[in-house]
Specification:
The protein has one domain (13-110): Multidrug-efflux Transporter Regulator, Chain: A, Domain 2 (Orthogonal Bundle). By secondary structure, it is mainly alpha-helical. It is elongated, with a radius of gyration of 18 Å. Helix content is 58%, strand content 4%. A two-stranded antiparallel ribbon has the order 1-2. The chain is built from 5 helices and 2 strands, in the order H-H-E-E-H-H-H.
Length: 111
């Protein structure tokens, strides 16, 4: 096991599943549905996930499980984020938007 300060370059599907609490079959399915998720395969055909792939998996999990997006909605959200348009306030979690609103209301009251 690597020491806590050293990051691995590649992770197996089992390791990614453990880190994200997702089953391997879910990860394999998401690969077929999202172009953004495409881990390399080694000579034996085993998936080798990079840090970027891991971030995509975490983002997909947040969209699909936490924010209750459909597959198509999550695909569109990822595409918007990749293009850099439309991500703005719509991509913030509800709690962050509430905090922002409270802050702006406080600023307006002080003016």
């Amino acid at each position: 096991m690597p020491s806590p300060g050293i990051r691995k370059l590649y992770y197996s599907i089992r390791e990614v599943g453990e880190m994200t609490e997702l089953k391997p079959h879910v990860l394999r399915y998401w690969e077929t549905e999202f172009d953004a998720l495409s881990p390399k395969k080694n000579r034996a055909g085993n998936r080798a996930y990079t840090e970027h792939d891991l971030e995509v998996v975490r983002r997909l999990k947040a969209l699909l499980r936490d924010q209750k997006y459909t597959i198509e909605g999550a695909r569109l959200a990822l595409e918007r984020e990749d293009r850099g348009d439309g991500a703005g306030l719509a991509s913030l979690p509800v709690e962050d938007l509430r905090d922002l609103r409270a802050f702006l209301s406080d600023v307006l009251r002080r003016l």
